[in-house]
C-alpha cells in the first residue's frame, strides 16, 4: 500500500481560493512545531507530543516530496502563513490508514479546511488500496466529532484512558477518546461476524453499532 505520488494526492484536496496544501519540508519543521504549540497546547503530552520533536519528522515522516515512510504530514497555507497541519499514518499489513492529527489555526477553523483535507486524503486512501480509515478523537470539545460524523464516519466506541491531556494547570491525566472509522473496501469484500460466536454483551453492542 504505497502513498500516491504527491502531485496526484494533493490534487484531490480542494481548498478555498487563496489556500494551498504542501507536503512537509525540512525547512518547515520548526515553523510547524511552533504553530502546533500555539494552536494546540494539549499536544505537549500524550500520543501526539511526537509532533513537537524534530527527530520524529526526520526519522518517521516523508519529507521534501519523498513517499518512503509510513507517516505523512501536510501543511496548509494562506499565502505565506501556515494555517494548518494534517497527518496520517499507513498500516501496510492491514491496508489501513490512521488519521493521526488535524489542527487548524483558530482564525481559520470555521471555513471547512478540516473537512476538505479529510475528504481529499480519504479519496487518496481509496486509490492507493486502503480498506479502512480511522481516527481517535478528543472528548474535550465536539469539533472533530461533528466533522467526522458529517463525513460519514461511524462512532465505534471509546478508548478509556488511552491518551494523556493537561486537564488543569500542572495536572495531567489519562483521558477517554472516541474511536471513529470508515470502511473503504466494498461490502462484498467484508465477512460479517456470526452472532452465534458472540457473547450476549458483544451481540448487544454489535446490534447497536450495526443495526440490521
Explain what this protein looks like in three dimensions.
With 212 residues, the protein is of the alpha+beta class. It has a single domain (6-186), classed as Aminopeptidase, CATH 3.40.630. The protein is built from 6 helices and 7 strands. The longest helix has 15 residues, at 113-127. The protein is globular and about 55 Å long. The model has no long low-confidence stretch (mean pLDDT 95).
Task: Explain briefly what this protein structure is.
The chain is of the alpha+beta class and 212 residues long. 26% of the residues lie in helices and 32% in strands.
In which order are the strands of the major sheet placed? 1-2-3-4-5-7-6
Q: What is the H/E order?
A: HEHHEEEHEHEEH
Instruction: Provide the CATH architecture.
Output: 3-Layer(aba) Sandwich
What is the CATH class name? Alpha Beta
The percent range for helix content is: 25-40%
Which stretches of 5+ consecutive residues score pLDDT under 50? none
CATH superfamily: Gcn5-related N-acetyltransferase (GNAT)
> What summary fits the major beta sheet?
7 strands, mixed
In percent terms, what proportion of residues is strand? 25-35%
- Mean pLDDT, to the nearest integer, reads 95
Number of domains: 1
Give the helices and strands, then pairings.
Elements: H1 6-9, E1 19-23, H2 29-39, H3 54-60, E2 71-78, E3 81-91, E4 96-104, H4 113-127, E5 132-138, H5 143-150, E6 154-168, E7 171-183, H6 200-209
Parallel strand pairs: 4-5
Antiparallel strand pairs: 1-2, 2-3, 3-4, 5-7, 6-7
Amino acid at each position: 500500500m504505497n502513498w500516491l505520488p504527491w502531485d496526484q494526492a494533493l490534487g484531490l484536496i480542494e481548498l478555498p481560493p487563496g489556500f494551498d496544501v504542501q507536503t512537509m519540508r525540512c525547512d518547515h519543521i520548526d515553523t510547524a512545531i511552533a504553530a502546533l504549540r500555539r494552536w494546540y497546547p494539549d499536544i505537549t503530552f500524550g500520543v501526539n507530543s511526537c509532533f513537537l520533536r524534530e527527530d520524529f519528522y526526520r526519522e518517521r515522516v516523508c519529507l521534501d516530496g519523498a513517499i518512503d515512510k509510513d507517516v505523512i504530514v501536510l501543511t496548509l497555507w494562506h499565502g505565506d502563513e501556515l494555517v494548518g497541519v494534517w497527518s496520517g499514518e499507513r498500516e501496510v499489513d492491514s491496508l489501513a490508514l490512521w488519521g493521526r492529527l488535524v489542527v487548524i489555526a483558530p482564525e481559520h477553523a470555521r471555513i471547512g479546511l478540516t473537512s476538505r483535507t479529510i475528504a481529499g486524503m480519504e479519496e487518496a486512501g481509496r486509490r492507493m488500496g486502503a480498506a479502512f480509515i480511522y481516527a481517535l478523537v478528543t472528548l474535550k470539545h465536539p469539533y472533530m466529532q461533528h466533522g467526522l460524523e458529517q463525513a460519514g464516519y461511524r462512532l465505534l466506541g471509546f478508548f478509556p484512558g488511552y491518551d494523556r491531556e493537561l486537564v488543569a494547570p500542572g495536572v495531567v491525566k489519562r483521558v477517554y477518546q472516541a474511536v471513529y472509522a470508515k470502511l473503504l473496501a466494498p461490502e462484498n469484500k467484508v465477512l460479517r461476524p456470526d452472532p452465534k460466536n458472540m457473547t450476549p454483551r458483544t451481540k448487544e453492542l454489535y446490534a447497536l453499532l450495526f443495526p440490521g
